[in-house]
Design brief:
By secondary structure, the chain is of the alpha+beta class. It contains ten helices and five strands, in the order βαβαββααααααααβ. The longest helix has 21 residues. The two termini are about 25 Å apart.
């Protein structure tokens, strides 16, 4: 079991979600350690000073603590759906930068001292960019899901969940179709497996569970 990479994760974190999605589709097995963010284990802090999920610790001691790098590492080992061919670094950077900033200031205005209406409007402008793109193709980089879709989808999901009724009322038909497809995919269901928080001394939690790879299409 010591030969498996260790993934520190948190089920509802969009960064951790996208890492798990890539690990699943690549067939990469890891020892999953679910983290309680208000009580982070010392092992996580020792592995990565940033102490935020996801963090992947490889058997040789190498640490990968950026979610997009975990995705690329997993897909570099196996990429059966060709996700790396459907990448858009600029689109992902816009998601991880400006859109995530506006998302946080919409969702947590008290934490940021922000006007959520202003930031919601700025985030919506970018969602319209995605909607226009999805009018041209089923997925962000073509007909099939790829790295760009899976890197961005968890954050759109988080934004839509802030005020579902408001989101449903927006003129984003192509984006909502795309979001719905991924929300109801077997891959996403497998990535959202509920596991108990990890504690030092616990038996390894293997992810994905045996047989899960048969149900992620």
């Amino acid at each position: 079991m010591s030969s498996l990479p260790i993934l520190y994760s948190f089920r509802r974190c969009p960064y951790a979600m996208r890492a798990r999605l890539a690990l699943l589709v690549s067939g990469q097995v890891v020892a999953l350690r679910e983290v309680v963010l208000r009580d982070k284990p010392d092992a996580l802090r020792q592995a990565s000073p940033k102490a935020t999920v996801p963090v992947l610790v490889l058997p040789d001691g190498q640490v990968i603590d950026q979610s997009i790098d975990i995705m690329r590492w997993a897909l570099g080992r196996a990429d059966p759906e060709g996700w790396l061919m459907r990448d858009d670094a600029g689109l992902i950077a816009a998601n991880d930068g400006p859109f995530k900033m506006h998302l946080d200031r919409t969702k947590y205005p008290d934490r940021h001292g922000s006007d959520p209406v202003v930031h919601r409007g700025a985030a919506l402008d970018w969602l319209h960019v995605l909607d226009r793109r999805l009018h041209m193709s089923a997925q962000l980089c073509g007909a099939a899901r790829g790295l760009a879709d899976m890197a961005i989808f968890p954050f759109v999901r988080q934004f839509a969940a802030i005020d579902p009724a408001w989101f449903e009322a927006q003129p984003l038909p192509h984006l909502r179709r795309w979001l719905d497809i991924h929300l109801h995919s077997p891959l996403f269901a497998a990535a959202m497996l509920r596991v108990p928080p990890w504690r030092e001394g616990d038996a390894p939690m293997i992810f994905p569970p045996v047989g899960a790879e048969e149900n992620i299409v």
